[in-house]
Amino acid sequence: MADVVAAALAASIARPGTAYASIEQAKEAAATLAATGACALCVLRFLRVPLGPAYQDDAAAAIREALGIAASDDPAPVCPACLGTLGPDVARRAAAEFKSQCYDTTAVTVAVELPKSVYVRHRAMQLLCTAAPAAPAIDVKDAVRHVVLQRLAAECDVVAAIDGEMRIEITFAHAETADDHQFLAKRPHGPGAGDTKSAIVAALAACSDDEFRARFPCPPPAPASAAVVSSMVLRRASVFVGGRYLKLERNISQTPFIVEGRRVTEHSVAEIIGEPLMALTRSDSYNLVGSGREDADVRMLGDGRPFYIECINPRTTQVSPAQIEAVEAALRERGSPVQVRRLQMVTAADTSIIKDGEENKSKRYCALVWIARPLTAEQLAEINAIGREGLLLQQKTPVRVLQRRAALTRPRRILALAVEPIAGRFYRAHIESEAGTYIKEFVHGDLGRTVPSLAGLAGATADILELDVENVALDFPPTPTPAPAAAPAAR
Ligand SMILES: [Zn+2]
């Protein structure tokens, strides 16, 4: 390992426009840096050795040996430059966490948020190495990211990705040095307490070397405690499973229907479909997005309603079409009241079909209707003649949804209406409407808030006893192709 470090140092010195003219000069600077208590990786950073294999979280001894740092210059317990963020614990913890969760990805982006004091201390350390003003030292954030990725590559066989579908977000905190940047606040246009990193970096850039030296100790004092990882979040981009659902029984809501902590419906479409998909992809949670929704007491029949399930933070995305089909088959075989058709992996782009289709799809319904006074044959013929032409409704926001929707009057079109008698006062109404029409209100008139209505056409009180959705005219999901289930593989 010491050879690797020596080679890296030699290579960095050989580069044009480099910081140090010779190995001897670099070693001299290394001794100065080490005397501040800087850790081995920070010494490399301030020697301007580019990030590479020499930066390993367990290479401290080799680096010190290669740079000829005397054993008597043992580093302080906590590095005053990186505050311990380049220590081995962080990278090991990230690797252990990644392994324990068994993500099936090899492309990882590491994002790091450091204590802001690190940027102030970076400036102070740079000023120590006056022989090298031309080349900037290696950024500490880049170094932390590099060290973590090196460890992940070694232990988990992953590669760094610029904008990978998998992100490991590491946030550090260090209370002890939280006020390091406060001297900048006293400058005109300086950042205030708790300011952003970019404000601090900008204020540091505006501060001359002499002024900085006068206001902040160079080298910076070694802290008593190391920075702590305040959060380490592993997050994978969502995967999406699309299909069409059928709801064969009533009293099932689309998503869990909970009022004041109590469930109103026992089951939901989202849970019946989402739970097995969450298990299959080993996700944290899921979210169902349907192309519209029917009320809990309305069945969804025919070809079903297009929907997709977003699986959030999935560990497994290499899901085969056969595994997806098994979810569909399991619901069928156990006679679940919610069934799915054409279940398949879809892309994030495909999900926009559902969102965009919301406005312009039409739907077909079948309603069981009771009319207080039976219709004469003439009345029935007249209603059906009107129904064949279609009707333009003026529909005020229904009384039953006024609490959560704005009170507006919307024009909505009934594309077709056909009423057939069943017996006595019972009728079956076949209704095709454009998206966003309130069908129950079209039948009973909603106290005159929907005009015209079936009740109005019948000249009698009408009520809707049962409603089924028979078709949602939206082509989704995309027709299965040979290998749509292969999730976007590692880049
Ligand atoms: Zn350090």
TrEMBL record:
<protein>
    <submittedName>
        <fullName>tRNA pseudouridine synthase Pus10</fullName>
        <ecNumber>5.4.99.25</ecNumber>
    </submittedName>
</protein>
<keyword id="KW-0413">Isomerase</keyword>
